[in-house]
Amino acid sequence: MCRMKTNITLKLDSDLLREARILAAEDDTSISAMLAARLEQIVRERKNYQRARKRALSRLRQGLDLGWTPGSREELHER
Fold first, then answer.
1. What does the pLDDT average to over 2-15?
2. DSSP letter string over the chain?
3. Can you tell me the distance from the alpha carbon of 68 to that of 66, in angstroms, rounded to the nearest whole number?
C-alpha cells in the first residue's frame, strides 16, 4: 500500500540542526528519514502500550480464580 507523504516545516536550533546533519551523514541517511523513523517508533510503542494496558485492565475486571475459598473466621484467626 502506497501512503501519501506530506511535508512539514520544523524550527530547530542551529546547533541542533548541525548535529542532526552530522548524525544523518554518519548513518548515510537524511534528517527527514531519521525523524520519520523515530516518529514511527514512538507511535508504534504508544499503540503497543495502549493495547497492553487495555488487555491488563480487561483481565483485572475479569479477575483470576485462584481456587481458594476463605475459611471461617475462627480458622483464619487460629494461633
1. 92
2. -PPPP--------HHHHHHHHHHHHHTTS-HHHHHHHHHHHHHHHHHHHHHHHHHHHHHHHH----------HHHHT--
3. 5
Domain spans, the chain: 14-61
pTM exceeds cut of 0.85: no
| Amino acid occupying residue 65 | D
Give pLDDT, residue 10: 94
Q: Give, in order, the Cα–Cα distances in Å from 78 to each of 44, 67, 68, 70, 75.
A: 53, 22, 18, 13, 5
- Cα Rg, the chain, nearest whole Å: 26
Each residue of 37-64: pLDDT tens digit?
999 999 999 999 999 999 999 998 888 7
